[in-house]
Amino acid sequence: MYKVKLEKFEGPLDLLLQLIEKEDLDINQISLARIADEYIDYVNSRKDIPLDELSDFLLVASKLLYIKSKSLLPYLEWDEAEDGAMELEEQLKLYKEFLEASRKVESLIKQKRFLFARERVVLPKGFYPPPKLKVEILQKTYQGILGRIEPLIKTAKEVKNKAISIKNKIEELKLNISRRAKIGFKDFIDKAKDKTEVVVSFLALLELMKQRIIKVSQKELFKDITIIKK
User: Fold this and answer.
1) Count of domains in the chain?
2) Whole-prediction pTM value?
3) What is the pLDDT of residue 61?
4) 17, 76, 116, 164: most buried by Cβ count inside 10 Å?
5) Closest by Cα among 81, 79, 88, 37 to 60
6) Residues 14, 56: contact at Cβ < 8 Å?
7) Which residue in 167, 161, 178, 165 sits closest to 228, CA to CA?
8) Which of the given ranges, 68-82, 83-97, 186-200, has the highest pLDDT on average?
9) Which of 99, 101, 19, 110 lies closest to 54, judged by CA?
10) Within a 13 Å sphere around the CA of 173, how many CA atoms are in the beta-carbon half?
11) CA-to-CA distance for 88 and 190, rounded, in angstroms?
């Protein structure tokens, strides 16, 4: 720690400030320029001086400079200057707090502690419903879920309707062939309402081919199928 060595005083700088503030020592008998020069020599002789020690010196030195200025210029109004000195003191204190915080962060970085785990929350095993939960609420919720699920197996009624649709399409295709010698498959499905009806129409076409009632031809792949009556 830096110690002041003057004719009138020898010891820590903060003790010098206390004596001057208590008026036990006359500030005019102290050479602030000499203190500054000695401290600069002290800093140059040591390369590992902590930053907080430097800030402490700056704080004490600024107070000493302020007190000496008041003693040398007593006829001036010092209210604004006093506020400025207080502001400087607060800034130095704030700087010191940031300095301490930066040291803690630097220490964490050196320890490679970049992640901090929170405490593990141990949950009880098993199902524990809320205290106000009722059976009626569970039942209603379960029924709502079932109502939104589409059935995986088609009912017998749907299968029956599909069979009837194929039969109707077979009769419809027979009627079209009886009126014209040949027709295109695209013309036959031109009024189909959906893809299901198109599929059913194609199944009807295959069934009539199987029964040797019609024959079909196609010039190229993916081109229109021509349906011809035998």
Assistant:
1) 2
2) 0.31
3) 72
4) 17
5) 88
6) yes
7) 178
8) 186-200
9) 99
10) 31
11) 91
